[in-house]
């Protein structure tokens, strides 16, 4: 029998005694070699090395999966962090109408009108749904807001002197303090704001 066959027989249990003289002698030699190896080997260290190798072998697929997940996350983060392209110019010219909002109703103003400081202005803008602001440079009267047919836009006159008032339109939000090149503006409505006249008190009745 070969040494490998003898080792398997010895590992499985009894049965070597039934072999021939030459096989029993070979089995005795293998047993002696095995005992000598164990006597000079650090079995605990070898077992620890084997256990460590098995652990790394089991962890390898997980590490690979984590690496793929990290790469995917980095790709997603790169796409999310990419700056959005600047919107293209809007082919819409909004129309702006202004009225003075009073207790008696809204009175339309002409293209060059006089208002009083403190008046409430009502703005009517003809434009599709999007974002609209009302500016009277350098002031922003109405900050950009979602715009639709029923949107109510009002502001109070908080200046004196002459100003051009514009409706500013874009399909996406914009910064009205620094109007981007891709927004569109209405024709200006020129307003001249004058101070409110002083309130005259009725003279007291003389006794």
Description:
The chain has 2 domains: 3-81, no CATH class; 95-194, Immunoglobulin-like (Sandwich), CATH 2.60.40. Helices cover 33% and strands 30% of the residues. It has 3 helices and 10 strands; from the N terminus they run αααββββββββββ. Strands 3, 5, 6, 8, 9 and 10 form a 6-stranded mixed sheet that branches. A 4-stranded antiparallel sheet has the order 2-1-4-7, with no helix packed on it. Helix 1 (3-12) crosses helix 2. The model has no long low-confidence stretch (mean pLDDT 78).
> What is the structural class?
alpha+beta
Largest sheet: 6 strands, mixed
Shape: rod-shaped
Identify the CATH architecture of the largest domain.
Answer: Sandwich
Q: Return the CATH class of the largest domain.
A: Mainly Beta
The number of strands is 10
Number of domains: 2
CATH topology of the largest domain: Immunoglobulin-like
In short:
The chain is built from three helices and ten strands, in the order αααββββββββββ.
Please write out the topology.
Elements: H1 3-12, H2 21-40, H3 43-81, E1 95-102, E2 105-108, E3 112-116, E4 120-126, E5 130-136, E6 139-147, E7 153-156, E8 161-170, E9 184-185, E10 189-194
Parallel strand pairs: 3-10
Antiparallel strand pairs: 1-2, 1-4, 4-7, 5-6, 5-8, 8-9, 8-10
Helix pairs in contact: 1-2
């Amino acid at each position: 029998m070969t040494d490998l066959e003898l080792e398997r027989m010895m590992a499985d249990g009894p049965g070597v005694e039934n072999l021939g003289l030459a096989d029993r002698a070979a089995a005795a030699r293998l047993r002696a070699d095995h005992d000598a190896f164990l006597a000079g080997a650090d079995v605990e260290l070898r077992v620890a090395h084997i256990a460590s190798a098995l652990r790394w072998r089991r962890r390898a697929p997980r590490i690979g999966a984590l690496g793929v997940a990290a790469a995917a996350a980095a790709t997603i983060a790169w796409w999310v962090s990419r700056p959005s392209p600047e919107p293209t110019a809007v082919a819409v010219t909004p129309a702006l109408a202004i009225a003075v909002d009073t207790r008696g109703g809204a009175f339309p103003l002409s293209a060059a009108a006089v208002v009083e400081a403190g008046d409430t202005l009502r703005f009517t803008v003809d434009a599709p749904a999007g974002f609209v602001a009302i500016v009277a440079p350098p002031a922003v009267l109405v900050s950009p807001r979602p715009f639709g047919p029923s949107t109510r836009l009002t502001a109070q006159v908080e200046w004196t002197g002459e100003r051009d008032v514009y409706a500013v339109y874009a399909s996406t939000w914009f910064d009205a303090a620094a109007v981007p090149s891709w927004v569109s503006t209405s024709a200006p409505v020129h307003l001249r704001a004058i101070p409110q006249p002083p309130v005259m008190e009725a003279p007291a009745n003389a006794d």
